[in-house]
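Example for reference:
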Amino acid sequence: MKSLLQDIWTNEERIGWDDVVPETLSQRFYCWYDHLENLESLAVPRCFRPKCGRWTQQHLHVFTDASSKGFGAVAYFRTVFEDHSVNVSFVMSKTHVTPVKGLTIPRLELQAAVEGLNLALTICRELEIDLRQVTFHTDSQTVLRWIHSKTCRFEVFVNNRIGKILRNTARRQWRHVAGDSNPADLCSRGIDPKDVDELAYFHRGPSFLTLDPSEWYTWEEIADPEERDINVIRVLAVKTEDENHAIDRCVARFSSLVKIQRVLAWSTKFTNNVRARLREEKPMGGELTVEEMVISLTKCIVRAKELAFAEEVYALRKNLELPLRSKLRNFKPFLDEDGQMRIGGRILLAPIDYAAKHPILLPASQLLTKRIIWDYHVRNIHVKTERLLTDLRSRYWILSGRKVVKSVLNNCWPCKRTSAKPSPPLMASLPVHRLTPHLAAFTYTGIDYFGPLTVRVGGRGRRHEKRWVSLFTCFTTRTVHLEVANGLSMEEFLLCFSRFVSLRGRPKVVYSDNGTNFVATEQELRQALKNLLLSTKNFRRQWLVNKLSGTSLHPMGPTSVVFGKGLYNPANGQ
């Protein structure tokens, strides 16, 4: 079916979505469609070890093949039991049609081998199998020749795929299989539904896997082609970079920049003294000087520059233009007399330090850069990112500086402890009085006082007196009502409350804090209502109950936030 779809897409007539498919292609489709009913009898065994009993060995075998129509791979488990019986079970397969641009058969066989490797990687990852225990089978001697070759003389297409194979597998894992014994042949040429019986052999696996490995087909290693048959280009590559450089080992071993400077300075001093003794000169003694410490740091910076900016350093030394892909082109860099790379610019005549006019370029990927950042961070008493970056730029310019500084500060435990934020406790659910909708304003009310405020009263004989403000807040709508009180007594509050009720209506529930005027008012109202009910006849008593009941005053504690204190206290500040 994949091959048919590809033929439709690549047809010379350029068939569109609404066009009629040519007769030859439609006949192929109907032939395929008419035999789909044969697939009803197809059964795929999914148990890897259907036989009961203990097994001793289980290995994965992957077969690959390719043709002009397509390529693919199929995997089987070969299980050996204690009674030396062998069971071969189908695991999975993968097929692809040949690319439209066209490839030679050897390259298609190589592509099939890569597909077999991808199939094995998937199975090994999902079933937690060691990839080194997988055996690969191919009927292409050309692919095996490429895999077993010891010299690199391949084109880019072949070289990339052979490199992937050798990075994940060993040469000994690849075996040759005869073409008529390769079950992946069905993956490459395809099969019609009318030939569904061939799939039984495909799911059962090749018969030679049930034999002892000594009886399998052995492929005699083919020698590499002679030099005259191919165009061999030999390249002599010399690696100038020393992986065990003393400066690199010192930077990696010590986390303190001062320690690195001292170790390198003492090592340099010792080397110079040994050479002086050989020349019968007087060695240098005493403690380290500031100049020796600066020289050791300069050597570290030059080494980091050579590792990260090798092409740029070569271009600057040869007075060439920097590469177009270089990140340093906009910085106009140059090399000073010590070999350090500095930033150019137009402020050469500025009356500031030379290091500030032309800071040293530091790569973001080098460990020395992080050592310098950490040294500045500690010496400046663990400052934050922006301040630390400003101090660094007075002498150094770090590529992606803010990102590198943040990565260093993220590993500073003293900074983590000082900047840690306490986790707030989980607040309780809001009471129903703060969530009830579709009610009149001030149905549920909170009361508080703020003040005193000094006001000027009187006419000619003006004087200053204190006034307080009674604050009424609606729990639902956050509406605010203010009443002026001459004092904090119970009588003044009752006057304020009476004026509030006259204007806004009687609230259903009133909340307040435990102020003495609120508590006394609640007790006074309760006692007054009780006395009124006792001294009134029955029909008047019922009328008063209906008229006066319905408003309840609830004094609360000073920390009752969710019940209203936190609701109207912010209004006090406003």
